Amino acid sequence: MAAIRNFFKKKKLDIKFKTAGAGHKLTDEQPTPQLSTHDSGASASRQVVPPTEAQKAAAEPEAALARLQAPAPAFAKGGSTAVQIRMRKELEAERKAHRAKVNMTNKKKMIYLCAQNDHL
Length: 120
What we know:
Radius of gyration: 35 Å
Helix content: 55-70%
Strand content: under 5%
Order of helices and strands: HHHH
């Protein structure tokens, strides 16, 4: 079992080192340049320009309408206290049902035992 555990530890460590990238010595004057898989010209054209104040102001009412029209998630109905109250009521109802069932079986047992005693 320990041999299997050690095997997987070594594999995980190898993967960590491989994904960490190329290393370099701390005593080197110039760090080695990292090769990028992305094209530098393509990344320059993809830069996001921050919106102006007018664009932000125009987008705010649309965002508010979208939030109002979106369906509310199921957990957001009421609050956490409302959920707790509802769950307490459900649990209490289950307890009452269970107690009633136990009482009925106890009554049946009592009736059966009384009938047995009458026959003696």
